[in-house]
């Protein structure tokens, strides 16, 4: 059964032409179509020429968005000894050791990012079924398993995001708020593109970038010129 499209969305879709837009033009249009009654996020949906069922074609990494995410990120840290104090001093919202692991097992989930030191990972591993589906399980690739607690906390609070390609080879990333200036969204989108290029899986064959669309949370999809984004120099985007 076809999903009914609201009158609001239908009128917004009429503003979007069936073509790829220059990056800054696409982002200006994203802002125009962010008409929901709440602060909408700016989202990117990028189809890559990869098949993640093969281990050498998987993409999972992090990006630091220079203009931030526009969100307050609540960081929890599981550590031991002096690292607990270090985490508190570095601005972690929730800090603990075995007792925090027990609280999470009992349903505590009032955080957006969970960082753990390597020495507690054997205990944290039993939280996999709870944290995995929510994308909260600490991992070295995601920068959330580390002894450098202070740096990790400051980076995630400043705009560092972890992302991965889904099983169909599509990356879905929130790269700011629709209320940001279009120029700031462009700086963040460019940082995302460079990160994806820099972390191209070794097994990726042929054309790596297939399509890129941006949208506000409740807005229509807007196609972006891939070459226009990849050829853009950071001095132009800044």
TrEMBL record:
<comment type="subunit">
    <text>Part of the 50S ribosomal subunit.</text>
</comment>
<dbReference type="GO" id="GO:0003735">
    <property type="term" value="F:structural constituent of ribosome"/>
</dbReference>
<dbReference type="GO" id="GO:0019843">
    <property type="term" value="F:rRNA binding"/>
</dbReference>
<comment type="function">
    <text>Protein L1 is also a translational repressor protein, it controls the translation of the L11 operon by binding to its mRNA.</text>
</comment>
<protein>
    <recommendedName>
        <fullName>Large ribosomal subunit protein uL1</fullName>
    </recommendedName>
</protein>
<dbReference type="InterPro" id="IPR016095">
    <property type="entry name" value="Ribosomal_uL1_3-a/b-sand"/>
</dbReference>
<comment type="similarity">
    <text>Belongs to the universal ribosomal protein uL1 family.</text>
</comment>
<keyword id="KW-0689">Ribosomal protein</keyword>
<keyword id="KW-0694">RNA-binding</keyword>
<comment type="function">
    <text>Binds directly to 23S rRNA. The L1 stalk is quite mobile in the ribosome, and is involved in E site tRNA release.</text>
</comment>
<dbReference type="GO" id="GO:0006412">
    <property type="term" value="P:translation"/>
</dbReference>
<dbReference type="GO" id="GO:0000049">
    <property type="term" value="F:tRNA binding"/>
</dbReference>
<keyword id="KW-0699">rRNA-binding</keyword>
<dbReference type="InterPro" id="IPR028364">
    <property type="entry name" value="Ribosomal_uL1/biogenesis"/>
</dbReference>
<dbReference type="GO" id="GO:0015934">
    <property type="term" value="C:large ribosomal subunit"/>
</dbReference>
<keyword id="KW-0687">Ribonucleoprotein</keyword>
<dbReference type="InterPro" id="IPR023673">
    <property type="entry name" value="Ribosomal_uL1_CS"/>
</dbReference>
<keyword id="KW-0678">Repressor</keyword>
<keyword id="KW-0820">tRNA-binding</keyword>
<dbReference type="GO" id="GO:0006417">
    <property type="term" value="P:regulation of translation"/>
</dbReference>
<keyword id="KW-0810">Translation regulation</keyword>
<dbReference type="InterPro" id="IPR002143">
    <property type="entry name" value="Ribosomal_uL1"/>
</dbReference>
<dbReference type="InterPro" id="IPR023674">
    <property type="entry name" value="Ribosomal_uL1-like"/>
</dbReference>
<dbReference type="InterPro" id="IPR005878">
    <property type="entry name" value="Ribosom_uL1_bac-type"/>
</dbReference>
<dbReference type="Pfam" id="PF00687">
    <property type="entry name" value="Ribosomal_L1"/>
</dbReference>
């Amino acid at each position: 059964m076809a999903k009914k499209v609201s009158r609001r969305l239908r009128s917004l879709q009429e503003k979007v032409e069936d073509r790829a837009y220059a990056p800054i033009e696409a982002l200006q249009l994203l802002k125009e179509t962010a008409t929901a009654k709440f602060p909408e996020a700016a989202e990117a949906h990028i189809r890559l020429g990869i098949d993640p069922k093969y281990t050498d074609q998987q993409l999972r990494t992090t990006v630091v968005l220079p203009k931030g995410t526009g969100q307050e990120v609540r960081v929890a840290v599981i550590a031991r000894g002096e690292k607990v104090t270090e985490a508190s001093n570095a601005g972690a919202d929730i800090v603990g050791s075995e007792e925090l692991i027990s609280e999470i097992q009992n349903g505590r989930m009032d955080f957006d990012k969970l960082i753990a030191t390597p020495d507690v990972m054997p205990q944290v591993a039993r939280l996999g079924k709870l944290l995995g589906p929510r994308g909260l399980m600490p991992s070295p690739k995601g920068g959330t398993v580390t002894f450098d607690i202070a740096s990790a906390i400051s980076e995630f609070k400043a705009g560092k995001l972890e992302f991965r390609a889904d099983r169909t080879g599509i990356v879905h990333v929130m790269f700011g708020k629709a209320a940001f200036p279009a120029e700031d969204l462009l700086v963040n989108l460019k940082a995302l593109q460079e990160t994806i290029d820099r972390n191209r899986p070794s097994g990726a064959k042929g054309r790596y970038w297939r399509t890129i669309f941006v949208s506000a949370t409740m807005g229509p999809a807007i196609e972006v010129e891939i070459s226009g984004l990849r050829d853009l120099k950071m001095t132009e985007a800044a």
